[in-house]
Specification:
alpha/beta; 2 domains; five-stranded mixed β-sheet; 382 residues
Length: 382
């Protein structure tokens, strides 16, 4: 089936009891069993829930994996991934421009269990090769990165990872969604999403999902999901399923508006630099065209320092000053004090996350209204 058809139907059969077209919210903690050892495939809701199962099957189909498992947040999904792949004495390589919450998890929590992390510029394959060790068990890549929008060659990194039979390549695909990028098709072993973002798309649910390409990894992660218990609720599973049905049309709208806003920003003299892979001057533009089918709605741009950023963000009205991204409404943020505040200042400076950097998650409003709102904010910088 095509992607749009799978987004609507994969993992979701009409309800066998009523014929309902929409998967019901099975809001139950347990299930009646017909006898000892005899049940309908469901015993306890932490272990299995039909609404969550529908979402997990849907995402496995969209990301071309063998199985998917849904968690209570994107960070819970990433935490489960570390339980799957890493143990004391292991080494992991990560993109150096990670989401601040991921860096915080790896550097402040997982590292304390005897796991060593190397943060590398994964856009440079030579840097990845140099970082590899005999005990490297995971390469964790964001592409595009948050918020600098650096692009990593997924196929190239997968070849490096797979030179070691025990190393897995995991890709955070939150920014692109499976509509614009499918890492498993490019050689990745595992895909991670914050379902909070584009998959749900309506800023009314928090969740995460991991999709795997190897059956043994999938079986182990299913055990971890049940044992650790950070599951996605039935209602949140239903919300994400609802969101995915419109994912293709929403992503096309985000992409169209994103390109228009990036071009608008490119003409503003107050903008020192734009980070958007859809612009030809972006260093990853050619690679993005090869491994992505769209450029999405995430843009970062640099103003002249903190005071300009503060003034600009204080003037927007239609664009909402808020963390998160991927909703139908446009959200705007200041990475240095919001999403990446947990990253040390010197590391932020090295990565280009300056005090003047602004990140915008372009929504699907009328683009003329968005431009008018941004124009009003730029007027404060005159």
């Amino acid at each position: 089936m095509g992607f749009k058809t799978d987004a609507i139907h994969a993992g979701q059969e009409p309800d066998p009891t009523t014929g309902a077209v929409t998967t019901p919210i099975y809001q139950t903690s347990t299930y009646v069993q017909e006898g000892l050892g005899k049940h309908k495939g469901f015993e306890y809701a932490r272990t299995q829930n039909p609404t969550r199962t529908a979402l997990e099957k849907n995402m496995a189909a969209l990301e071309c994996g063998v199985a998917g498992y849904a968690f209570a947040s994107g960070m819970a999904a990433t935490t489960a991934l570390t339980h799957l792949l890493l143990k004391q004495g292991d080494h992991a390589i990560c993109s150096d421009n990670l989401y601040g919450g991921t860096f915080r998890l790896f550097d402040k929590i997982v590292r304390n269990y005897g796991v060593e992390f190397t943060y590398a510029n994964t856009s440079n394959l030579a840097d990845v090769e140099r970082a590899m060790r005999a005990n490297t068990r995971m390469i964790f890549v964001e592409t595009p990165t948050n918020p600098i929008m650096a692009i990593t060659d997924i196929r190239g990194v997968s070849q490096i990872a797979h030179d070691s039979p025990e190393c897995r390549l995991a890709v955070d695909n939150t920014f692109m969604s499976p509509y614009f990028q499918r890492p498993i098709e490019l050689g990745a072993d595992i895909v991670v999403h914050s379902t909070t973002k584009y998959l749900n798309g309506h800023s009314d649910s928090v969740g995460g999902i991991v999709v795997l390409n190897h059956k043994d990894d999938a079986e182990r992660l299913q055990f971890i999901q049940n044992a650790a218990g950070a599951i996605l609720s039935p209602f949140d599973s239903w919300l994400v399923l609802r969101g995915i049905k419109t994912l293709p049309v929403r992503m096309e709208a985000h992409n169209t508006n994103g390109i228009a806003i990036a071009n608008y920003l490119g003409a503003k003299k107050q903008v020192k630099r734009i980070y958007y892979p859809g612009r030809p001057e972006h260093p990853g533009h050619d690679l993005a065209k090869k491994q992505m089918s769209g450029f999405g709605g995430m843009i970062a741009f640099e103003l002249d320092g903190l005071e300009q950023a503060r003034s600009f963000l204080g003037r927007v009205k239609l664009c909402s000053l808020a963390e998160s991204l991927g909703g139908v409404e446009t959200l705007i943020s200041h990475p240095a004090t919001m999403t990446h505040a947990s990253v040390p200042a010197e590391e932020r400076a090295r990565l280009g996350i300056t005090d003047g950097l602004v990140r915008i998650s372009v929504g699907i409003e009328d683009v003329e209204d968005l431009i008018a709102d941004l124009e009003n904010a730029f007027a404060s910088l005159a």
